[in-house]
Amino acid sequence: MMRISDFQLKDIVNVTDGKKLGRLADIELNSTTGAISALIIEQSGKKFGLFGKEEEIIIFWMNIVKIGGDVILVRHGEKPSEEDEQ
User: Domain PRC-barrel, which positions (predicted)?
Assistant: First the structure.
């Protein structure tokens, strides 16, 4: 069993380019099933000045590759290949 606080301690890394995306800000739940449907990640750094809002990245459950002890591996920003489009 895992708690939300356990998720918040893990690094979130994009397997497409190996970069750390940010920290877990929130979890989106399916109201019918109660299952996690997406992770919402806050990127570090402010875009709109000192009091600006941090940008968010939404990672849908199907794009989570693996949840490990210290890291969550996700697929983000990957362009679909020609095989996927057919």
Answer: 1-76
